[in-house]
Amino acid sequence: VFCSAAVASHFVAYALGFRQIKSVQQPTEPIGHFSEPVFSFGSSLKGFAIDEALLTDARGWHTISKGCGAGSPAEFEFLLNNSANNSSLIIFTSIFEMSEGMISPSRTALVPFLQSVGDTWDMVLGWEQTKTLLWKYPLDSLQEVFPTLGRSWEVQVLARDKIRASLGRSSTPASDDGPIDLNPTSNEIQSSLLDWDAGRLERNVAQMQQMNVSLHSNFTGPKSRALDRILSRSRQSGTFNIVVILPVSPTFISRNLDREAVNAFDLALTKLQDRHPDALIIRLDNEGLLQSDDLFWDLVHMNARGQASTTALLLERLNNTTLQK
Asked: Which end of the chain is less packed: N or C, by CB atoms within 10 Å?
């Protein structure tokens, strides 16, 4: 029975075209007169929200970009290497990725199990949060044998798309609920969240809500601890640390988070700034010009208009700020 179940799971995964989400690294060519690189970390939210080539060119940086799907500082800490330890850093994150209820698919591949155990022990986390975090490790191992285990949402979405294709009802990548390009070379998506019908919106909201919703208002856990360790690392003279808080759609906020959760996130960032006064924290999530579902092609990823607006605002903030070194 065990072998039959494993074979059936692999067959379904193969037939539906499952793909693994792995950490990615995209170094950019040296631009400008800076000899030392600026290491940029983020998830797919950064890829869709920021035109990094334009940012790099405008600032005269030599940017080395790293990241992973749904990545947070917990994963970025282990994407840092010896050369990055003494370099300038710019970390892109959001209320979505900093929530302890959102666990990156790359976590077990990047963060050692003992590190997660140590963080849960040192921070005296509750049972539900500890179970949610540590269960990911055996689950990922079991998925090597049963690739569809714990992936019912992806099974449903990919099966639906196969049926659509067989009926000649194909859809564009931007209108699909399935896996996305985690590191787009360019953002040319013109569609927006406003184009979604009620059914698609409810499906995606439900999928977000089932991901450990009770932990979505928790921003004091292993992720915040990892960000503290990153910002506390020794730096050479002339380098800087920047944390950019990216926006998510107003619909995501209203349907997944309450005022208590938003206030908890604000408080966590205030305390972070107090602990690291030399770090520059840029909150693009509070920019009124970015508070529109028309700038997002799904609940958390920006479309081309959103990227243009977000990149322009970030450059404006950087150009009006003297980086503390």
From this structure: N
